[in-house]
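## Example pair
The file below holds two records. Each record gives the amino-acid sequence first, followed by its structure token line.
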Amino acid sequence: QVQLQESGGGSVQAGGSLILACRYSELPVTRYCMGWFRQAPGKKRERVAMFATDESGTYVDDSVKGRFIISQDNAKNTMYLQMNSLRPEDTAVYYCAVRTESGYLYTFPDFFQHWGQGTQVTVSS
């Protein structure tokens, strides 16, 4: 059973920065897709950023492009989301997720089987 745990959320003023971390258990596969999603109150869960082992580069949603950076430290079984220039509209619960069925890039949450419990990010104006 793959387990993921987010940390690093909190409250910050607009223009500030936060780094989210997602610690995951040892994966049973070597090819996978992993990423970050977020869900604001009353809204659907939406993609933020992800990467896949079989594809170069990363996907970063237009809403956060140029402000958020996704990265991974394999030695620590940890994925990160560096969030800069935060805006009130970035306020949401942030989730990390992994799809272990293939190493291709997927961006829709329905394709991901394993999820963390989420961490709250609140940005005040």
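Second record, same layout:
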Amino acid sequence: VQLVESGGGLVRPGVSLRLSCVASGFGDSTYCMTWWRQAPGKEREGVAGIDSDGSTSYPSRVKGRFTTSKDNARNTLYLQMDSLQPEDTAMYYCAAADDLVCRLDPTVVNYWGQGTQVTVS
């Protein structure tokens, strides 16, 4: 199983960025897919989740600015981030969990990607 993120970079405040995560090795399994971020010196925090049926969830700190979606045919997960602010600067990770509830809980994650850096400055 492998998750590979891409799309990070250095952007100005107020602009948008879309991250991608290509998943491989899952076979016919269905997983809860989530996005996380971790800034230096801070704990990893969940920013979006999407379950096998396509239902999404977001914490209040990003709701209305971040949108996650997936293309099952391409085995790709996306995170659209709008109105980026300096406090959004972090390493962003995608993750997969065999969790029917699809919680933003790092303890239920089975697989992590290697991350992609987003810097807003």
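Notes on the second record: Residues 28 and 47 are 26 Å apart (CA to CA). The chain has a mean pLDDT of 94.
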